[in-house]
Amino acid sequence: MKKFLLQTIAALAALMAIFILSACGAKDETPALADATAPPEGTAAPDAEATPAAYGTNASALVTATAAYSYADGDKTRLYAAVEYQNDGDCPIAVSNVKLTIAAAGASETAEFVPELSDYIVLLPGETGYIARWLGETTIPAGETITLDASLTAEKRDERGARITVDNLYIADNYPSVTTLSGRLTCQEGRACAANMIFAGFYDKSGRFMGAWYFSKNALFEGGDSKNFVVDMNDFPIAKLSEKAADVRGIGFGFDF
Q1: How crowded is residue 69: how many other Cβ atoms within 10 Å of its Cβ?
Q2: Which of 52, 99, 140, 246 could form a disulfide with 151 if both were Cys (CB 3.0 to 4.6 A apart)?
């Protein structure tokens, strides 16, 4: 009996060893399953994000149009100049220096300056901006035809500030001789700004650039805010602007000091 039990246990142990070896062999022969979460070859993982195109290093400002006027101011004659320019480089820019050469009636004048708050007036590639400058008294007679040559120095800047859309622009010539510009400003980004600079360019019915104006609206903007404005255009050199300007284009920059 004891011998029978020993034989039975030995047989069972041998049978279990066979099952174990069979299972191991089956595991070795079965190909590994592909990871169900892995994307097919040649495709991006589901959570992979496209890398945004990086800006380059070519800071360039192309002068696309100019306008200049000599105009009477009481018993004096003053000079005004405006420039339309475009960021034709591949990175955000600020204009760090402007040089103007004015010629008329046999006279020539030059002016060189840094635009107001220029570090905050950052144009993205392809955007159009404006520069306006009142240059003070001049010997050029009022109303004389003026040739203006402008040279701009552009420097690369970080994209900064809140973009402000300028629309619903309307020019009105009010009694006795004050021209007003009204419209709407909308902060397009999800960020607040406590200061801003707004620029408007004026064009006649043929699309010719006539001049530019700039101003600041004293208001705190939250992201998505819209605010209306009316601004007096004192000392703008074109009388009856509403009759002469067929188009007004604006661009705004919001920032914090």
Answers
A1: 21
A2: 99
DSSP letter for each residue of 35-74: PTTSPPTTS--TT--PPPPPP-S---EEEEEEEEEEEEET
Q: How far apart are CA 164 and CA 221, in angstroms?
A: 10
What are 32-86's pLDDT values in tens digits?
A: 444 444 444 444 444 444 444 589 999 999 999 999 999 998 889 999 999 999 9
Query: What distance in Å separates the CA atoms of residue 224 and residue 114, rounded to the nearest whole number?
Result: 31
Q: Of 195, 186, 196, nearest to 253 (Cα)?
A: 196
Beta bridge partners of 247: 203
- Tell me the mean pLDDT in the region 134-138: 92
Predicted local confidence at residue 53, as pLDDT? 56
SS3 state of residue 135: strand
